[in-house]
Amino acid sequence: MDESIREQELAESTQAAAPRGEVAADGLDIEEAPSTVAFADTAAMATRERTRRRSIASVLPPASPKLIVGLVLTFGIVLFGLIGPFFVQDPKFSGNPGMLPPGPEHLLGTTQLGYDVLAQLAYGARGSLMVGVIAGVIAVILSLAFGIIAGYVGGWTDEVLSLITNIMLVIPGLPLIIVIASYVPSRTLLLVALVLGLTGWAGSAVVLRSQAKSLRNRDYVAASRVAGEKPWRIILVEILPNLLPLLSAQFLFAVILGILGEAGLSYLGLGPVGSITWGTMLNEAQLGTALSSGAWWWFVPPGALIALLGCGLSLINFSIDEYINPRLRLAPAAQRSMRNARKAGRQVTSKHAVDADGVILDQKKKGAVL
After folding, report:
1. Interval 45-91: pLDDT, tens
2. Which of 53, 74, 158, 268 sits at 20 to 30 Å (Cα–Cα) from 217?
3. CA dihedral 5, 10, 13, 14 (to 10 degrees)
4. In whole angstroms, what is the distance from residue 236 CA to residue 209 CA?
5. Cα 84 to chain center, whole Å?
6. Would you say residue 204 has pLDDT above 80?
7. 3-state class (DSSP) for residue 7
């Protein structure tokens, strides 16, 4: 980044050092040599383009098999939830025969009431994804407010916000969600997502607080304070961009917890009322004794999609974590070097003998220390 800034300043100083009509180039006035000005403009534009590409590439994690598999799984399920409902019948249409196994007319069979399982799976994908995304956004916003502000401002603000965060950490999340959901008779998707988001931000806030306290002591942040920048601008411009990889990883983790939390609540009968999600499908399959009757097509598809989506988001999260964590990023290279060292050591010891003191001796010449 410093190199790109120096390049841009050099390009701007080159333009400023050669004003039109004052400096000659090869014996001609600048007005008579427009190619020099065009060259300087082109160099400045190329420098800015390199800076922009470098800044974008610095945020994105490098491509890896783990990341590619996670993206394929996640985007495949998201596309199924967005496009699938346009190609299936009404998920509440009960005119079909009940408990039909998968066949040409119903690819995933029907439920006990005659609902098409594929239709409910497509519409349930929308509901589950909506709950996960809303819960993730709420959790990230609260973790930003309680984590970054507490870490940067410090003082009594840090004490108060940290106290609230610690209280939310010690309160068990799932029992609190069950209690809140049980006292609300008309539960909607938005309400369930709101409850899940309000109970899943404390852990991320602790991590962001420690990172903000570390970034607060950096030179560029101190220079911004000396220059008279306002605290909110320092947080948004200087601190927040450096936390984007961490925020994206925490958002994905919050989405996973939101989807799994909604599925757990719906399985217990405390999910959204009147909506279709993968969790409500599992609850209806349980109430319809699908497991005992052998109707595997009723409960296996929603459970498999929940597992695949969680796996895809987890792989993306692990890739981002490896990108922002130097220990995880350098671990594969360290393991390879250790394996190579062990292999080289085995080759050496196979050619030489070792005495009682651990000294490697040549097999032909005993006593010759290598």
Report:
1. 555 555 444 444 455 566 778 889 999 999 999 999 999 999 889 88
2. 53
3. -140
4. 15
5. 25
6. yes
7. helix
Taking each helix axis from N to C end, the angle separating 296-324 and 278-287, rounded to the nearest 10 degrees, works out to 150
List, in order, residues 6 or more apart from 144 with CB less than 8 Å away: 208, 240, 247
Q: At 241, is the secondary structure helix, strand, or coil?
A: helix
Residue 304 banded pLDDT, cuts 50, 70, 90? very high
HSE-up (13 A, CA, CB side) for residue 101: 4
Q: Longest C-alpha distance within the chain, in Å? A: 95
Q: By three-state DSSP, how is residue 215 classified?
A: helix
**Token pair of 16, please?**
């400023």
Per residue in 153-187, is it b (16+ CB within 10 Å) or e — as a string?
A: eeeeebeebbeebeebeeeebeeebbebbeeeeeb
d(CA 200, CA 253): 10
The secondary structure of 281-349 as a DSSP string is: HHHHHHHTTHHHHT-HHHHHHHHHHHHHHHHHHHHHHHHHHHHH-HHHHHHHHHHHHHHHHHHHHHHHH
Whether the CB-CB separation of 196 and 263 falls below 8 Å is answered with no
Write out pLDDT tens, residues 321-358.
777 766 655 656 666 677 777 777 665 555 554 444 44
Amino acid (one-letter) located at 27 = G
